[in-house]
Amino acid sequence: MAGEFVCPWWIGYVLVCPARRWLNDPAKLLAPYLREGMTVLEPGPGMGFFTLELARLAGPSGRVIAVDIQPKMVAGLRRRAGKAGLAERIDARLARPGSLGLAGLENTVDFALAFAVVHEFPDAGPFFAEVAPALKPGGALLFAEPSGHVTQPQFEAELAAAAAAGFLLETRPAIRRNHAALLRKV
User: Fold this and answer.
1) φ and ψ of 160, to 5 deg
2) Which residues pair with 48 in a beta bridge?
3) Cα(66)–Cα(31) distance, rounded to whole angstroms?
4) Do the beta carbons of residue 127 and residue 43 sit within 8 Å?
5) Diameter over CA atoms, the chain
6) Strand 109-115's sheet: what is its strand order?
7) pLDDT tens digit string along 139-158?
8) CA neighbours closer than 13 Å in the CB half-sphere of residue 128
9) Do the beta carbons of residue 38 and residue 62 sit within 8 Å?
10) Contact (Cβ atoms closer than 8 angstroms) between residue 119 and residue 89
11) What pairs with residue 143 in β-bridges?
12) Residue boundaries of the structural domains of the chain
């Protein structure tokens, strides 16, 4: 399986380029899943292409917990959140090797977004096993992997790891140039 490549921090600037919206507009992609007041988890946010929209959709009473392993990505996200006036809604955290650092979040998260991140882990099993406890029962995880990096069989293996962690496949939304699944915590 994948997991051999972690996106370099400097690509974070490319990933937040406004031109990227023509491919995957965060507002259109996320709006069906979020509402005001939600607590959202985003592992691997980079510099926040989706994070800022997650914070807007969760509203002033919501909260986004964004966890990345790269200090420069977290710093870039914090800078962008401040400029957008959203810093108070976003808890940008630095993960430590081998763990997302989600202890203390058990059953508090309404929605999680894992967009183009699971393939960067050496094994998808521990990723899903760590995210599942943070979600409330019935909480949703929108999981997408770029079809240019992850093959269909690799994606299916990641879905099997998600099922083993207690996720149920609800639907497979169409997300351009991605394999995608909406999962529910059972």
Assistant:
1) -65, -40
2) none
3) 18
4) yes
5) 41
6) 90-94, 63-68, 39-43, 109-115, 135-146, 178-185, 167-171
7) 999 999 999 889 999 999 99
8) 25
9) yes
10) no
11) 114, 181
12) 25-185
For residue 98 the two structure tokens come to: 């081998």
pLDDT digits (tens, 9 = 90+) for 76-113: 999 999 999 999 999 999 998 889 999 999 999 999 99
Identity at 61, one-letter amino acid code: S
DSSP assignment of the chain equals ---S----TTHHHHHT-GGGGGT--HHHHHGGG--TT-EEEEES-TTTTTHHHHHHHH-TT-EEEEEES-HHHHHHHHHHHHHTT-GGGEEEEE-BTTB---TT-TT-EEEEEEES-GGGSS-HHHHHHHHHHHEEEEEEEEEEEETTTS-HHHHHHHHHHHHHTTEEEEE----TTEEEEEEEE-
CATH label, 25-185, candidates 3.40.50.10540, 3.40.50.150, 3.40.50.800, 3.10.20.740: 3.40.50.150
